[in-house]
Amino acid sequence: MTSISFYSHASDKLAIARQLAVKAWGQKLNVLIYTPDPSVAASIDRLLWTQPALSFVPHCGDDHPLVTVTPVIIGKNADKIMSADVLINLDHEAPPIFSRFDRLVEIVTDEENDLALGRKRYRYYKDRGYELVNHDLRNRGQ
Predict the structure, then answer these.
(1) Which of 82, 75, 74 is nearest to 101 (CA)?
(2) Is residue 119 situated within a structural domain?
(3) How far apart, in whole angstroms, are the C-alpha atoms of residue 109 and residue 115?
(4) d(CA 31, CA 120)
(5) CATH number of the domain encompassing residue 64
(6) Is 142 a domain residue?
(7) What are the tens digits of pLDDT across the range 100-140?
(8) Domain of residue 111, residue span
(9) Rounded to an integer, what distance in angstroms lies between the CA atom of residue 133 and that of residue 113?
């Protein structure tokens, strides 16, 4: 069963997503950063190119020809990735493909609308019997 972690009270959702993707890649895991929104995809792509400044995180969009050999994928199509290790959700809804992954990561900010949507996703997973783990980022210096 997919393990689900919520990272709550994030000050910057994309920065946390980048940190978690880098950590997973460092553990030799494949990552799908899930977003159907092209502007969010472009923003996380930029972050992965520029942060951290002295390293490179191999990544590409889910429509790129190298998608099958790239460990970090950005988009909504999981059909071409090599292994379903980590799914980082940057959408407002629960990804329809989340159960194909070993681990799902949800990131929730303190913004009122994001909190409401995060609670809705939390209930969705909980109602389906998933065990949820919450990481409160308020006092961790993200």
Answers:
(1) 82
(2) yes
(3) 6
(4) 24
(5) 3.40.50.10110
(6) no
(7) 999 999 999 999 999 999 999 999 999 999 999 999 998 77
(8) 3-136
(9) 21
